[in-house]
Amino acid sequence: MAQSRVPMGITLEDEDSAATPPGTHNLRSQFSSAPAKKAPGSSGEMRVAAQFRRRQARQFAMRLRTFVFWLAAQSCIAAHAQQVDGRAIFNVQCVVCHQPDGKGVPGNFPPLARNPDIFLTRDFPARVVLFGMSGKINVLGQAIDGTMPPLGDVLEDEEIAAVVTYVRGAFGNDTLRPKMMEPLDAATIKALRTTKDADQVYVYRKILKTRLTD
Fold this sequence. Notes:
Layout: H1 12-19, H2 24-33, H3 43-83, H4 86-93, H5 95-98, H6 124-131, E1 133-139, E2 142-148, H7 157-169, H8 186-193, H9 201-213
Antiparallel strand pairs: 1-2
């Protein structure tokens, strides 16, 4: 079998160089030694993206939890407000003196029916319920000399607001309501408890009545 011979004066290394096109030997070595570039979507980028998604998920969960707590609190407040029945409070605390028809007891307890005093100001009747009132007054032509006991230690803010609202809408009083007068709320009652001289109800009424006649 014939053996291939390398021409005299040419080594195997020279033969390899001769078989390689000029300029390609260095190019091949550069490609073989260059570090491989990361393709898009490499593990590093995917890790950063995953961390970003986890952070967004945590932030969303925190916001959702805060909203759920707020919604639950509002539901409790609304449920409590619905449970406060002004008419029921009137029937327990007020009906003995002011009577089921709101006409009161002549000479002792003033009528609430069609009584303009309950609209003297937004908070006047609340002051009466909170702190009570005593002294001679005239209501719808009746001279009254009696005492209204304070109920601020008996009733909660919401209950006082509820019973005043009930009286203002009962016994024909709804026709007396000033159009611009806002409904009474528990926040107003709470503020009255700490308002200076708010317990001077008789004097306050006298001032308001004087203003009406001036």
